[in-house]
């Protein structure tokens, strides 16, 4: 009953948002990878985006003024991975902090001798377990160098649903954890070898850092450049197709 009341409240709040059709069209035109969605899926994504905007707590950092365009663009991209999973996959946290471009996060790291090193890490986004998602906003897509910051960070949030981010989100009934582990680890090791060998990979080389980064980078490619991912790692594509319950290569398929 409580869950149903929560869903009802979220839907009502989303419906209260006054988003003109012209703004939907303008934002969606800048997200061409939504083109594979059927009309029903497009309508459902819009509803999820409405509820997502209403449910989360938004803030602009470093003087960035959040606009309806920025919020809608982020919401549509964030909700694309959970189009057939539901907003419950983003439960347990509320904050979204948007920065005007890259930002700095102070880090501490202890080396093998026990010495703590402090440094500034320039990042485009970061997802915190149980906490907010930090995202860079770029007015011009070309400034991101082919990286989808939103899908990347929200893939981390899905990964964290099973605990620590390790590249294995909670899998659906009928999916094999062993099969997922075998496919992902084999692909990750191959990708890491290629990147370490100096190859100019078509997928973002950042995916070679850790299994969780490979999952996030593969998720970006799954939605933005599905042909590329299926060509490079067809078994990874199939695992993500099963997990996201979508097939971006086929119009309107899920």
UniProtKB/TrEMBL annotation:
GO molecular function, one term: aminopeptidase activity
Organism of provenance: Sulfuritalea hydrogenivorans sk43H
Protein name according to UniProt: Zinc-dependent peptidase
A GO-annotated cellular component: cytosol
Annotated CDD domains: Peptidase_M90_mtfA
Organismal lineage: Bacteria, Pseudomonadati, Pseudomonadota, Betaproteobacteria, Nitrosomonadales
